[in-house]
Amino acid sequence: MAKKRPFTEIRENLLITLSKGKKTLNTLAKEAGVNWKTTDNHLTYLMGKGLVAEVFSSPYARIFDLTDKGREMVEKIYPAGALKFLKKDDTKGKGGVTIL
User: What rounded mean pLDDT belongs to the chain?
Assistant: First the structure.
Protein backbone atom coordinates (compact mmCIF):
# COMPACT_ATOMS: atom_id res chain seq x y z
CA MET A 1 0.00 0.00 0.00
CA ALA A 2 1.30 3.43 -0.96
CA LYS A 3 2.21 5.91 1.74
CA LYS A 4 -0.29 8.75 2.03
CA ARG A 5 1.24 12.13 1.14
CA PRO A 6 0.63 15.17 3.35
CA PHE A 7 -1.73 17.85 2.05
CA THR A 8 1.10 20.40 1.90
CA GLU A 9 3.13 18.16 -0.40
CA ILE A 10 0.15 17.59 -2.71
CA ARG A 11 -0.68 21.31 -2.84
CA GLU A 12 2.93 22.33 -3.50
CA ASN A 13 3.09 19.72 -6.26
CA LEU A 14 -0.09 21.13 -7.85
CA LEU A 15 1.29 24.68 -7.68
CA ILE A 16 4.59 23.63 -9.24
CA THR A 17 2.78 21.75 -12.00
CA LEU A 18 0.60 24.80 -12.72
CA SER A 19 3.68 27.05 -12.79
CA LYS A 20 4.48 25.44 -16.16
CA GLY A 21 1.24 26.72 -17.69
CA LYS A 22 -2.53 26.42 -17.74
CA LYS A 23 -3.88 22.91 -17.27
CA THR A 24 -7.19 21.10 -17.37
CA LEU A 25 -8.25 19.32 -14.21
CA ASN A 26 -7.45 15.89 -15.64
CA THR A 27 -4.09 16.94 -17.09
CA LEU A 28 -3.12 18.56 -13.81
CA ALA A 29 -4.14 15.45 -11.86
CA LYS A 30 -2.15 13.17 -14.14
CA GLU A 31 0.99 15.33 -14.16
CA ALA A 32 0.88 15.84 -10.38
CA GLY A 33 0.28 12.14 -9.75
CA VAL A 34 -2.99 12.65 -7.86
CA ASN A 35 -6.46 11.35 -8.74
CA TRP A 36 -8.91 13.84 -10.21
CA LYS A 37 -11.19 14.05 -7.16
CA THR A 38 -8.30 14.76 -4.78
CA THR A 39 -6.99 17.32 -7.27
CA ASP A 40 -10.42 18.96 -7.45
CA ASN A 41 -10.63 19.14 -3.64
CA HIS A 42 -7.17 20.70 -3.33
CA LEU A 43 -7.87 23.15 -6.17
CA THR A 44 -10.95 24.31 -4.26
CA TYR A 45 -8.70 25.01 -1.26
CA LEU A 46 -6.04 26.74 -3.39
CA MET A 47 -8.69 28.89 -5.13
CA GLY A 48 -10.06 29.87 -1.72
CA LYS A 49 -6.56 31.02 -0.73
CA GLY A 50 -6.29 33.03 -3.97
CA LEU A 51 -3.38 30.99 -5.33
CA VAL A 52 -5.18 29.38 -8.28
CA ALA A 53 -7.94 30.60 -10.59
CA GLU A 54 -10.32 28.72 -12.83
CA VAL A 55 -9.77 30.53 -16.13
CA PHE A 56 -12.22 28.51 -18.24
CA SER A 57 -15.20 26.35 -17.42
CA SER A 58 -17.57 24.37 -19.63
CA PRO A 59 -19.57 21.18 -19.17
CA TYR A 60 -16.64 19.31 -20.77
CA ALA A 61 -13.48 20.93 -19.36
CA ARG A 62 -12.18 23.17 -16.62
CA ILE A 63 -8.87 25.00 -17.02
CA PHE A 64 -6.81 26.35 -14.13
CA ASP A 65 -3.88 28.74 -13.84
CA LEU A 66 -1.83 30.30 -11.07
CA THR A 67 -2.74 33.77 -9.88
CA ASP A 68 -0.03 36.35 -9.20
CA LYS A 69 -0.22 35.34 -5.54
CA GLY A 70 0.24 31.70 -6.60
CA ARG A 71 3.32 32.59 -8.64
CA GLU A 72 4.76 34.40 -5.62
CA MET A 73 4.14 31.28 -3.52
CA VAL A 74 5.97 29.08 -6.04
CA GLU A 75 8.88 31.56 -5.99
CA LYS A 76 9.00 31.26 -2.19
CA ILE A 77 9.00 27.47 -2.38
CA TYR A 78 11.54 27.38 -5.21
CA PRO A 79 13.45 30.65 -5.70
CA ALA A 80 14.04 32.02 -9.21
CA GLY A 81 15.63 29.49 -11.49
CA ALA A 82 15.26 26.53 -9.13
CA LEU A 83 12.35 25.09 -11.11
CA LYS A 84 14.65 24.29 -14.00
CA PHE A 85 16.14 21.61 -11.74
CA LEU A 86 12.81 19.83 -11.36
CA LYS A 87 11.88 16.86 -13.47
CA LYS A 88 8.70 14.90 -13.81
CA ASP A 89 8.91 11.74 -11.72
CA ASP A 90 6.90 8.98 -13.30
CA THR A 91 7.82 6.00 -11.14
CA LYS A 92 5.07 3.40 -11.22
CA GLY A 93 2.84 5.75 -13.23
CA LYS A 94 2.14 7.97 -10.22
CA GLY A 95 3.58 11.17 -11.70
CA GLY A 96 4.93 13.80 -9.32
CA VAL A 97 7.86 16.16 -9.27
CA THR A 98 11.39 15.40 -8.10
CA ILE A 99 14.18 17.85 -7.32
CA LEU A 100 17.40 16.88 -9.12
Answer: 84
Q: What angle do CA 52, 57, 58 make, to 5 degrees?
A: 160
Please check whether residue 39 is in contact with residue 29, taking contact to mean a CB–CB distance below 8 angstroms.
yes
pLDDT tier at 100, thresholds 50, 70, 90: very low
Domains of the chain: 7-99 (1.10.10.10)
Q: What are phi and psi of 15, to 5 degrees?
A: -65, -45
> Which residue type, as a one-letter code, is found at position 43?
L
E strand or H helix that includes residue 82: none
Are 31 and 97 in contact by the 8 Å Cβ rule? The answer is no
Using alpha carbons only, what angle is made at residue 44 by residues 25 and 66, rounded to the nearest 5 degrees?
Answer: 65
Q: Hey, which residues does 63 pair with through a beta bridge?
A: 24, 56
